[in-house]
Amino acid sequence: MRYLFLSLFLVFASFFSSFGMTSLSKNKKHILVIHSYHQSFVWTDSISSGIESVLTPLENEIETFYEYLDSKRFVDPIFIESFEQKYKLLCSKVTCDAIIVSDNNALNFVIKNRARFFKNIPIVFCGVNNYNPELLKGESQITGIAEYAAIDSTLMLMHKLHSERKILIINDRTVTGLANKVIIMNALPNLEKEMHIEYLDNSNMKAIQDKVKSLSEEWMIYLAPFTMDADGDYYSFNDVVGTVSRASSVPIYGSWDFYLGKGIVGGYITSGYMQGKLAGELALSIVKGANPNMIPVLEKSAVSIKFDHSILSKYSIEESHLPEGSILINREKTFFEKNITLFKNTLRIGLVVILLLIVYSVQKHRQKELLEEQNLELDQKVEERSRELLEANDTLNRKNVEITKQEELTKLAYLRLKAILNNSLVGIIVTDGEGKIIDQNNRISEILGCDKGELLGKNILSTFLSKSNYDILMNEYQQLQGSKALIRNEIPLKRMDESVLWTKIYISEMLYSHIENANIWVIDDVSEIVENRASLEKKTAELKESNEMKDQFFSIISHDLKGPLSSVLGLLEIITKNPEIFSDEERTVFMGNCYESAQDMNDLLDNLLRWGRIQIGGVSWNPEIIDLNQIADSVLKTLINVAKAKDIQVNNIIPLNLKAFGDENMIKTVVLNLINNAIKFTHKGGFVEISAEVENNRVKVLVRDNGIGINNDDIQYLFNIDKKIQQEGTNKESGTGLGLIIVKDLLEKNKGTIHVESHLNMGTSVYFDLPLKALS
Question: Which structural domain range is residue 729 located in?
Fold first, then answer.
């Protein structure tokens, strides 16, 4: 949950930083860039660099904004919903001329919300895996660059350079990994005719290291994009290529530029930078008037043949064997290439030095002649002024001594006052008659979270105090008579990071000031006191609720358990003390009644203990993907004899393989209670059925019967332990009244809800729902 809060905070922080703090120009075109992944992710940053290479030189004409869905690290629906809310607000204030989206998740997000937020805005995509024209069916004004990964070409290149070696393919099972697996599997039938290939995509990083270390010289490695191993651990591309290359003694190849130069030989390389550059060029042409419907999607682009020269040398691969047009990086430079900048700079410096020497010589000669003439004139003037200055100097020396003494005393007093002000444990500011801050101490900067001196010159209303609170304080302050001094407790102030703290404020008139109506504000942080009081109130409420629950628990024991127990004890006492007055048949009937009462008390006690364990968290919750059809079948087998005894037909019409997410034992208890209740309150010859369907990304389950129904006034109390609803079944079956209360608590533990619809003598329908998959 803390990651969810963190993800939500990051979403809104990025929004306010990108748009709230940026002044949008109406004279510029606006391009919004939405990335699928997070900033600092190598692939994402390389795409951004490509876009910037096109758009940054035009920043006087085009404003570009970058947003990140962060879908590789955060997949919670609430996180995605927060983005939808963000863009709803954004699109109400900002008109975009084009949108660039990178990778599949961002494209899917924009298409899904296009009618709501991005209507009629042209879209350019890049980095999209497994592109198919069907993906854009029904959409207009969309074009872009598909991410073409020439995996099969790289594998054939590896075979050409090392025809005797076998190939180990390392891949992961992320969305990107699965997309690449499709490409690999489609190519394997043709590739395996010429080479031996082994595929590895279901191992943790330790197992991958061990596998790579064990490879003999007859092997080589193809490394696909890898970010998450079988244990669910996340790795950056740098981590993966570094780990594999350190463990490997055989050549490693790849098809993406974020591996090149970091341990792989090379291959047919897909470039994120080129994807972004092409996308930026398409977006630029669109905002300048091009029709996106007339621009075809580039399905095979941004790929070049590149090799790392240092790795070629390591494995003795001749450059002559490389394909024509290959690009080499990390080639060792000649001495001249290494020092060409030095040679150029040396030549430039030499020419500049010669020119400066010539200019200096000419200027020096002219200055010498001019200075000789000026010196003669100055000598005469100096003699005249020297006499005057000697006289004035004596007078000034006497005055300076007096002024210096006064300055030292003033400076000492100022430093003493400043030290007292800055070392105060409370915040202090001074305002003029219009509320402008003219002085502050260091403590107020700490309280408000700003830099020292940052408040100077600002109005108190534009910094931390709301207008309504300022008006209240000033009205009360102005009403004071004589020497003005006002103290107010628990006034909320706004910090620079938008958080709120509670303070105690003391306002007084600043006497002997040259500024009219100047005031001193003394501010003390009392947030801890307010928070402690709120925490105490919360704990008091929790204790009150706990005591009420305990009272309810003991009330049930004293009323529903003690009463029947007293009746049984009384009946047994009569039979035990006077056995001779009862016949065997009467004793059998009495004992049967005692047994039924004891059984009812046992059921009540079991339900009380189960309910009590739920309330105190004593029931362990082990959620997983569960099969609802199988759970229903298991429950029906348990209750088949109960249904047959009343000739009730029970049907399970839940679709096969319908899955949900929850604790299997808890959900089985829920279904058992609901079907058992339906049988109990259905007349002989009736029917009970359980069904389910997927609705709004949740599984909705229905248990329906045609029994005696429930009074509408009683439905509201079915899940309330204060007012248990107990009713005999159609065959006078008894109940504890706690079954549905336990069902509700179990469903809430599994992120589910429940509600009941019923009509007297027509039947009852009980609905509950569960999530399709795990919620963060």
Answer: 623-771
- Judge whether 167 and 158 are in contact, CB under 8 Å: yes
Query: How many other β-carbons are positioned within 10 Å of the β-carbon of residue 679?
Result: 22
Instruction: Quick: pLDDT tens for 259-306.
Output: 998 999 999 998 889 999 999 999 999 999 999 999 999 887 778 899
d(CA 245, CA 448): 50
Same domain, 463 and 510: yes
- The DSSP secondary structure of 164-204, one letter per residue, reads T-EEEEE---SHHHHHHHHHHHHHHHHHTTTS-EEEE-S--
Q: How many domains does the chain have?
A: 5
How far is 252 from 242, CA to CA, in rounded Å? 11
Task: Give yes or no: residues 543 and 518 share one domain.
Answer: no
- Tokens at 255, concatenated: 């098809």
Between 731 and 665, the higher pLDDT residue: 665
> CB neighbours of 549 closer than 8 A, spacing ≥ 6?
615, 721
Highest-confidence range of 6-10, 329-333, 628-632, by mean pLDDT?
628-632
Walk across the sheet containing 327-329 and list its strands: 266-270, 303-308, 327-329
Task: Kindly state whether residue 587 falls inside one of the protein's structural domains.
Answer: yes
Please state at what angle helix 237-247 crosses helix 42-55, rounded to 10 degrees.
120
Give this prediction's pTM: 0.42
Contact 102, 35 (CB under 8 A): yes
What backbone torsions phi and psi does residue 397 show, to the nearest 5 degrees?
A: -60, -40
pLDDT(18) > 50 = no
**Residue 286 covered by a domain:** no
Q: Among residues 667, 655, 650, which one has the least CA distance to residue 629?
A: 655
Largest CA distance in the chain: 154
